[in-house]
Structure formats: C-alpha cells, structure tokens
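=== Structure Prediction Worksheet ===
Name of assembly: unnamed complex
Input type: mixed (protein and possibly other molecules)
Chain count: two
Listed entries:
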Amino acid sequence: MIVAWTSAGPSMLAAFLASLVEFVEALTVVLAVGTIRGWGGALGGSGLAVAVLLVIIAALGPALTRIPLDIVQLAVGALLLLFGMRWLRKAILRSAGVIALHDEEATYAKEAEALRQAGGIGRGWDKIAFATAFKITMLEGIEVVFIVVAIGAGGVGLFVPASLGALAALLVVVALGLAVHRPLASIPENTLKFVVGVLLAAFGTFWVGEGIGVAWPGADWSILGLVAGFFVVAMFTIPLCRARAGTRVSVDG
Amino acid sequence: MQWLKTIVRELFGLFVDDGSFALAIIIWLGVVGLALPHAQTDWRGAMLFGGLALILLESATRQARR
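=== Predicted Assembly ===
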C-alpha cells in the first residue's frame, strides 16, 4: 500500500512531537520516583501501565477499522480539533506571557518532595512508588494512545507512520533519560506544543471536512495549506494577546 | 478507584479546559456540517477553517484580557 507523503509525513511528525511532549512529562515523574523511592516500583508501575496501554491499542485499532471511514474521520477529526486547538491556544497564551511556561525542574522538585514526605521508603514492596509511576505513565500514555489512534484512524495507511512517530519519541526520551538522569528541562516544550497544536488543528479540520463531504482543493495537499493557515493565525494572535495582557496590566497597575 | 476518576477527569481535560472555547468549536462544526450543505457552496472548507481561526483568535485574546 502506498501512502502519500503529504499525509504520512505530517502524521509521523505530529505523532512524534506530541508523544515527545507527553513522554518528557512522564519521564520527569518516573525519574523522581526512581531516584527518591527506588527503581523497582518506578519501573514496575511504568511497565504495567505500558502493558495496559498496549492492550487498549490492540483493542481500539481493529475496532475502528470496522466503522465507516467518513464517520471515523468526523468523530476523530472533531476530537483532534478540540485537542489540537486547546494545545495551540495554550501555547499562544504561553508565548504571549499570559500564562506561565511549564517547568520540568519545578515539577520534578515538587514531585520529589511529595514522595519524600510520603514516608515508608526502603521497607519492602513500595506501593506509593508503584502507584505513582503507574498513574503518570497511564495518564501521559493515554494521551499518546489517543494521538496515535486519532492520527492513524484519519486515513487509510496512516496508523503505521503515526505509531512509528510515537515509538521514535519513546526511544528518544528513554535514551535521553538514561543518558542524563535528570528531567529534560531544556526541551522547548512550549514550542513543541505550538507546532503540535498547529499540526493537529490542521489534521482535525481536514478530517472533519472529509467526514462532512467537503471537496478539499488539491486533496491531501490541503493539509499543508491548513498547517500554514493555522500557523499564520497563531503567529498573528500572539502579539494581539501580548498587547491585550499589557493593557490589562497597565489598567490594573 | 480514585485513580480511575483521575484518569477520566484527565481524559475529559484532554479536549476541554475552557468550556466556551470547546463549545464554540462544536457549534461551528455543527453549523458547517448541518446548515451549510444546503448553501450549495464550494467554499465550505475555507468557511470551516475561517470559523475555527476566528474562534481561536477570539478565545485567546479574551483570555489575555482577563
């Protein structure tokens, strides 16, 4: 089966970047659990969560192929739009300085302190370490599963590039985690979220359009046009938000 | 079961953090999907994008003003 690179390329890139953000967030907490409470519980909890997530993917993937493509595109496109636009809006507000940037070092310090305060360290089976690692891997992993399934279900043959993108992100984050043993605070998370928000909003718009029978000019090439369109709108919105926030500050102050 | 509630809440939060923003997107999809087909226009794709772009711009600037 030949998949057009105009669909497969952006699909793989969107899945890679979105998954990278989620895996970095999970790594921060798993590192805190492993460092403070021991690696047995950290790796055990994360491992179980990954197994549960694989079962969810194995169940959801084939089930989605039995639903007519236009219905899947409409439903998944709408969810992808809500997800992508939410990320893009937040990235715009962060770039404009309206809300604070996400800080992995601060998250690590807060999580490490909470894990220390919980007590019971080094007394056999560590339920707290296991549960904390399981929960964060499930939470961030479910987002990755949704992204892969949503991007993969939007068109024929897109599941493989989307899965490969997520897998590559996992390998990159695990390799960096093993190498540096610290939260990956230098990864420009807001820039990644901005790019992913643009890509997912474009995919969501395209697939909703396909689902309701829009005849896109240039077929799949329209995805690139939508990416450019959302990028321009977002870049135009950042200074507007900055100006509005500045006005608010000067009025308040 | 607290962790299950947390996961359900986080799942919902994946799609909705500002209710009016999410609602505006859903309403616009409904308008383009249900109402505009009767308009017999070839511009539905552009209208779909344009509406979403305006919703994004309005919601972000409104949040910045708060």
